[in-house]
Amino acid sequence: MKTVLVRAAMAALLIATGPAEAGHYMAGPAEMGHHVGRAAEVRHHAAGPAEIGHRVLTADVLAASRRPEIVEGQDAHLTFTVGSATAGRGHKAYGVLKVPAGKDAGYDIPVVVLHGARPGPVLAVASGAHGTEYASIIAVERLIDAVDPAQLSGTLILVPLINVPSFERIVPHVNPTDNKSMNRFYPGDPNGTQTDRASFVVTREVVDKCDHLIDLHGGDLDENLRPYSYWTVTGNQKQDAISRAMVLAFGLDHIIISADRPKDPKASRYLENTASTRGKPSFTAEAGRSGPVDPKDAAVLVTGVQNVMGHLKMLSRAAPAPAKPVWVGQIVTVAADREGIFHPAVDRDAHVVKGAKIGSVTDYLNRPLQDVLAPESGIIMFVRALPSLKKGDTIANVGVVSTDPR
Questions:
Q1: Could you read off the pLDDT of 5-36 as tens digits, one per residue?
Q2: Apex 244 CA angle, 350 and 248, nearest 5
Q3: Is 340 exposed, middle or buried (0-12, 13-18, 19+ CB in 10 A)?
Q4: CA-closest candidate to residue 241, choices 48, 57, 404, 53
């Protein structure tokens, strides 16, 4: 996402927008208020072009999104293969996606294929790009047994754990083998490091074989996160209508509008965006926080996927009527510019006004270094869950509320 760095002690973003201009922001100087010592860094993530707030989806496009057609392209065969897993009609198969050795070691990514008794769309659901976002991983594990292929129309590809090295070594955010995030290097490189090669394999075996994709994430070990989804706006009106209907069917009540993702399929960067740039309606959903798995967080992800499957007519499950979610047009990230001990003053999902105290930072002798203030009015999408703080760590993400972009 586009990032602008501003020192919070000296400046904040001045929003130049009206209610209908979600995603169109211009930076300008403004005093943030009193800070003790050097202040945190603020990263502004623009939701994207100004036209988001003015987009009008035509009636025929919206109707198409509400009445998904049965797709019999990639799903039309009697068997369906992903990696080493080959499932016949009405059956489930277990296997792996083999990441070959190269500049560093190879490894196996687990995969399950549920090939429905009847033809229909191919939906891929992946998690574990960050191997300590546990709720999303457990959710996909539960889906393996929750979906009966004999009752399924279409094919469900489940990839519960992409970043096996992170999971096994309990390392947040990155693959410890090469110190790269496994959701930043798509579509991958067969000649790169382990993350590059794994991304290449997932693109070839999962993205290229599906019609729709859901990428599940959640709060990492240091993130106290409230559940939300990302809806990527591609500019393709029909595709955007379908993905919008999917994200509404999923059912989370906060949706971030993401309109500035890379458009080049050869440099798509994110897993969900890799599918989107290839014309496959997709979105990201996040739930769970800071280590231990709350069963309710895993359950909301399982239910969300099943709701989307009902919407796509893969299951005879009535998708709930779309709720009216809170649309978030911009994410403003507050990042630390020094080491210290962080003391939060707000919880996840708190509504804050510009200049409100998010927390404070002390040195290792409890001497105050700075107060951390909200750079914009909005919702705390997540706040740092751990006291330990080093330069560059994210302290909080503030979501700036927008209008419904239909």
A1: 333 333 333 333 333 333 333 333 333 333 33
A2: 55
A3: buried
A4: 57
pTM (2 d.p.): 0.83
Q: Where are the alpha helices (DSSP H) in 171-291?
A: 194-205, 237-250, 271-276
Distance CA 183, CA 175 (A): 10
Which pLDDT score, from 0 to 100, does residue 41 have?
Answer: 56
Tokens for 114, please give them.
């549920």
Q: What is the mean pLDDT of the chain?
A: 86
The answer to whether the beta carbons of residues 25 and 330 sit under 8 Å apart is yes
Q: How many CB atoms lie within 10 A of CB 267?
A: 13
**Do the Cβ atoms of 92 and 149 come closer than 8 Å?**
yes
- The structure tokens 């595709």 sit at 239
Tokens of 135: 């709720």
Closest Cα to residue 378, out of 158, 226, 154, 191?
Answer: 226
**Domains of the chain by range and CATH?**
59-311 (3.40.630.10)
Asked if 318 and 308 touch (Cβ cutoff 8 Å), the reply is no
User: Could you give the 3-state DSSP secondary structure of residue 177?
Assistant: coil
* Cβ atoms within 10 Å of 306's Cβ, excluding its own: 20
Phi, psi of 75 (to 5 degrees): -95, 0
Q: What angle do CA 205, 209, 212 make, to 5 degrees?
A: 120
pLDDT > 60? residue 328: yes
| Residue type, position 292, single letter | P
Q: What phi and psi values does residue 334 have, to the nearest 5 degrees?
A: -100, 120
pLDDT in tens, 34-80: 333 334 556 555 444 333 333 333 333 444 444 444 344 577 789 99
Decide: 159 and 125 in contact? Cβ < 8 Å.
Answer: yes
Name the residue among 208, 219, 129 with its Cα closest to residue 175. 129
| Strand 85-88 with 91-99, pairing | unpaired
Residues 6+ apart with CB under 8 A from 77: none
Give the DSSP letter of residue 269. B
The whole-number pLDDT of residue 29 equals 33
Distance CA 363, CA 333 (A): 22
Alpha-carbon distance 175 to 192, whole Å? 14
CA atoms within 13 A on the CB side of 264: 4
Identity at 26, one-letter amino acid code: M
The dihedral through the CA atoms of 210, 216, 220, 225 has a sign that is positive
**Residue 42: predicted pLDDT:** 62
